[in-house]
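Task card 7
Instruction: Convert sequence to structure tokens.
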Amino acid sequence: MRRAFGALVVIGALAAVPVAIRAQAEQTWKGAISDSNCNGKHPAGEHDGKKMTEADCTAVCVKKGAKYVFVSDGKVYQIANQNSKQIASHAGHEVELTGTMKGDSITASTLKMPAAK
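Output:
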């Protein structure tokens, strides 16, 4: 009887671990998709003296080798899934990003534009 109870406790504990990890992993942040060159600060005249939108600046920097980053509350987070078309389509935009964080890197699962105020 003790062995059966012990086995049930172990099985229950192992089954609960993945559920707990999934439940705490998904988060949503508000911020902007930028690039690792500018980190959310797109100075005027940065690209051959041309005035650009944040989206245009991010696109130029990424074409030159920079990586997409997410900037929230002044902190810059790396984006793990760089090849996501969803991230590219929101470059330079304020977004609500949902995903998982590991260290200072976020794997984005969904991005959406915040509701208009």
